[in-house]
Design brief:
mainly alpha
């Protein structure tokens, strides 16, 4: 009797779905899971939240650990400046484009320059060359424009060329673009951890 019961259970799970599909109402065929699997793609698709993976200093060589730690200190100094610059630049740009004449724009830019020099002159004077290079990269990251493009937009092509020439003397490139996937991967890892409050 127990054996007959087992066969009934097996019959119910294996054969019943096909019988039910054949007996659909109003002559329509109802597809069950096995028929759908045979006619459509059977791979499952799930959207997962991205997981950020950061380098563990313990996995780096001693030389890379020192490089990473030094870079972290420099980024702690200049990243807040880049964030402030991005916010202010958006505001400056909004006001700048609202002026109707070139004279008004020039006067506005002069006023902004004086304000920025008064606020950041001491910090910039004490900044190391390597910190300046990181700041240039982070400005591109935060604004979507290189420092050269920003100067050109507000001060014109000649000023951008002049400051690019000065920057080159000190080993900088105002046209340097931020590359988080290759050259600047360490900077990106540190910045993302700072944004998340992990460091």
């Amino acid at each position: 009797m127990a054996m007959v019961f087992k066969y009934c259970i097996v019959f119910m799970f294996l054969v019943a779905p096909f019988l039910l599909a054949a007996q659909s109402p109003a002559g329509k065929q109802v597809l069950d899971a096995t028929q759908v699997a045979a006619t459509k793609d059977t791979s499952l698709h799930f959207d997962l939240n991205p997981i950020d993976i950061y380098p563990d200093k313990k996995d780096l060589s001693p030389k890379k650990q020192r490089e990473y730690s030094l870079l972290e200190l420099k980024i702690r100094k200049v990243y807040p400046m880049a964030k402030v610059a991005a916010v202010r630049l958006a505001e400056y740009n909004r006001i700048y484009t609202s002026f109707r004449t070139d004279r008004e724009r020039k006067n506005y830019v002069k006023g902004v320059e004086k304000q920025l020099f008064a606020e950041f002159e001491d910090t910039i004077k004490t900044m190391k060359v390597s910190e300046g290079r990181i700041l240039i990269k982070l400005l591109d990251r935060q604004t979507g424009n290189t420092s050269y493009e920003i100067i050109k937009e507000f001060k014109g092509g000649f000023s951008a060329f002049f400051w690019q020439s000065i920057a080159k003397l000190f080993g900088h490139d105002l046209k340097a673009q931020y590359d988080p996937n290759a050259q600047d991967w360490m900077i990106e890892a540190i910045v993302m951890q700072m944004d998340l409050g992990l460091i």
